[in-house]
Amino acid sequence: MTKPVNYNKILAGGAPPAGAGGSLNKRDLPRPTAFLPRREPGDFMSQGLIIRPSLDFMLKQKIILIHGCLGLCLLSFLVFPIQFYSSDLSCYNLKRYLTLLDEQFAFYGWTDLNLHDIPWEYHRTSKYKHPLMFVVFNNQAKQYTLFLGGVHGDELPTVYLTFKLAQYVKDNPDLFKNHGIVIAPLLNPDGFLSRPPTRVNASGIDINRNLPTRDWQAKAIRQWTAKGKRGRYYPGAKQASEQETLFQVALIKRFKPQKILSVHSPLNFFDYDGPSSDLDSFEKWMKQICKKSHHPMKKFGYYPGSLGNYAGHERNIFTLTLELPSSDPGRSKKYFEKFQASILKFITLPVIGSPPNIRIINSKKSASKR
Ligand SMILES: [Zn+2]
Questions:
Q1: Domains identified in the chain, total number
Q2: Nearest-10 Cα torsion for 53, 56, 59, 64
Q3: Residue 177 C-alpha to ligand 1 middle, in angstroms?
Q4: What's the pTM?
Q5: Which of 10-19, 262-271, 350-359 has the lowest mean pLDDT?
Q6: Residue at 39 is within a domain
Q7: How far apart are CA 62 and CA 152, in angstroms?
Q8: From the CA of 155, how far away is ligand 1's center (Å)?
Q9: Which of 53, 157, 193, 267 is the most buried (most CB within 10 A)?
Q10: 114 C-alpha to ligand 1 centroid (Å)
Q11: Is residue 334 one of the residues assigned to a domain?
Q12: Phi, psi (degrees; rounded to nearest 5) at 203
């Protein structure tokens, strides 16, 4: 072991004369810093000495801390699924949206709806970030009936009617056992919530003219131009350009409904499009429904980009349009009472097969019984 050299003593006595015994050369001496306590980061007290950290050192520590935090955040995003964060956010968005609807509904006097009780689902939002939501009842069912409301934002009672239907189905599950029901009560929230409400969406597009039908490219803009380019019916510059349109397409693709009921106003009739091979039996059934609900039937036809065309004509889905007698929000509750029985019969109307090959079961018997 090397004997430690008393450097302090040497320093106090000055350097030994050159060449003196042992000839201790300055170069041979350990460097003074070797005797000083080694500075470790954060070691401010050592051997009785107070070492003050420099500003530079503190700055470095802060930078290390900030980088550490950022790293941890990044790591947690990678380790935990992104849904963990997004589900919280979508839950918050949904609550905020329902509260907004509550306020608007109260303004129209629709105070008997409890929107927060219904298990809504949504995967996309409108231009103004309103959730395009729907609810599924009996999601193990083999057949589905799809209900669409508020396609045109200024047709106010259609929104009440479909929300009320969702609440009614939720409150009476025994009535709908084995019947798959999907309800999207407000397809065009931006139009509904704008002041005043508008038929078109926030981009000025009629979402019942924007569906990707086979004739859209050739006819949509041409027909719109020929009819005087009315803004209320603008089909958009491109088919399926709108989130609200894609929402309808996604619902139809996912649930493959046998029957669709789309609620509109104020033209005051029932209209239908659907499997041409079975139109006779459906027509007979519809006549019964019209008679019982005192609501006329009218073949209104379909347009490039309309639901009747996309779902009824092209995909052979029984597509019924209920046009309410007016767009007066004050008459909404009366309309639900008037059409409740017909709507429930539509849900339970027995059909067989899946689109495009569906038929009404026992059409003669069912038509006479219903
Ligand atoms: Zn409409």
A1: 1
A2: -90
A3: 31
A4: 0.75
A5: 10-19
A6: no
A7: 56
A8: 6
A9: 157
A10: 25
A11: yes
A12: -95, 10
